[in-house]
């Protein structure tokens, strides 16, 4: 498994990574909904609303990781910010 924006997910084995989907959407400016699913079925507890301010504050505090989904999903703060800016704000 190659590490990237998602560092780890408790309860998901390496062989199951290809069966997991993470969906990031933005229905409200600056607030991102992140949801995990297996195929079309949402994983219980795998949903979070993440304000960009929280990510920027974590970056400012030099925190490398942020935990979501009741502490089960660990994300790399800098890489998730890069992904969000690239996909939602069209920056390079």
Task: Provide the fold topology.
Blueprint: E1 6-9, E2 20-28, E3 31-38, E4 41-51, H1 52-60, E5 65-68, E6 73-76, H2 77-88
Antiparallel strand pairs: 1-6, 2-3, 3-4, 5-6
Write down the overall geometry.
globular
For the report, how would you describe the main beta sheet? 3 strands, antiparallel
Total domains: 1
**Roughly what fraction of the amino acids lie in strands?**
35-45%
Poorly predicted spans: none
Determine Rg (CA atoms, Å): 13 Å
Distance between the termini: 26 Å
Helix content: 10-25%
Main sheet strand line-up: 1-6-5
Total count of strands = 6
Treating each run of at least 4 consecutive H or I residues as one helix, how many helices? 2
User: Averaging pLDDT over every residue, what do you get?
Assistant: 90
| Global structural class | alpha+beta
Describe this structure as you would to a colleague.
Helix content is 23%, strand content 43%. With 92 residues, it is an alpha+beta fold. The protein has one domain. A 3-stranded antiparallel beta sheet has the order 1-6-5. A hairpin with a 4-residue loop joins strand 5 (65-68) and strand 6. Helix 1 packs across helix 2 (77-88). The chain is globular and about 35 Å long. The protein starts with 5 loop residues before the first strand and ends with a helix. The model has no long low-confidence stretch (mean pLDDT 90).
Provide a brief overview of the structure.
This protein has helices at residues 52-60, 77-88, and strands at 6-9, 20-28, 31-38, 41-51, 65-68, 73-76. It is an alpha+beta fold and 92 residues long. Helix 1 (52-60) packs across helix 2 (77-88).
